[in-house]
Design goal:
mainly alpha, 10 helices, globular
Length: 215
């Protein structure tokens, strides 16, 4: 029994030594998540400047007359990368030579860091069933189509990639022909419910998967 315990103790010590030596010479221990995040924020701040994002969106992503507020980011990171590569409107595409996916991830971290904390309404879950009723009662379907599928008067908003905070900002101070809806007309909770309803729809199929478009 004693010999078995000694053997197990020796094996444990040997494994510990092997693990401690498994790093390549000169390789530093893994950085803590907090410090890695701080590095991403600082790198994102530099990339935001070098890519010229500040010229339209402001030094803190606060928005200018040329372009909207983007802090906090209006999309999650994958959707943000997809959008800046193939944007709509007046924004020019941001190629990988201007900002790599890694740099866009750092910019995302920077914009998140400078943004104010979300309000309770922006973080609270919405009621999709009530949102469906509100979508009809507020007349959203008249421009965006039933189920938010889009129409000639306004774009598709079902399964939107926008965050709830971005939707709220846009509805309160829209661009183009859409009229503004103040909190006295549509409350934050009502918008959260409508958002929850729109998120119940699946994403549209890619054009490559639609048979009629590829015949």
């Amino acid at each position: 029994m004693v010999d078995s315990l000694r053997a197990l103790r020796f094996l444990a010590i040997a494994l510990a030594v092997m693990l401690s030596c498994s790093r390549a010479p000169g390789q530093a221990p893994a950085a803590k998540s907090g410090s890695a995040s701080a590095r991403s924020v600082e790198a994102g701040k530099r990339a935001f400047s070098s890519a010229g994002c500040f010229a339209c969106h402001g030094s803190q992503g606060q928005g200018t007359p040329l372009a909207p507020q983007i802090a906090p980011p209006p999309f999650d990171l994958p959707a943000l990368i997809s959008y800046v590569r193939r944007p709509t409107g007046k924004m020019p595409p941001v190629t990988a030579s201007t900002a790599s996916d890694q740099q866009l991830g750092d910019i995302f971290a920077f914009l998140t860091s400078v943004a104010p904390a979300p309000s309770t309404a922006e973080s609270a879950p919405g009621n999709a069933e009530n949102g469906k009723k509100l979508f009809e009662s507020y007349g959203c379907y008249q421009c965006h189509g039933h189920q938010g599928a889009g129409a000639a008067t306004a774009p598709r908003i079902a399964a939107t990639a926008l965050t709830l905070a971005a939707v709220m900002r846009y509805v309160r101070a829209p661009t183009g022909q859409m009229p503004p809806y103040t909190s006295k007309v549509v409350s934050d909770q009502d918008l959260a419910d409508i958002y929850a309803y729109l998120k119940t729809f699946p994403l549209p199929k890619p054009a490559a998967d639609i048979l009629l478009l590829n015949q």
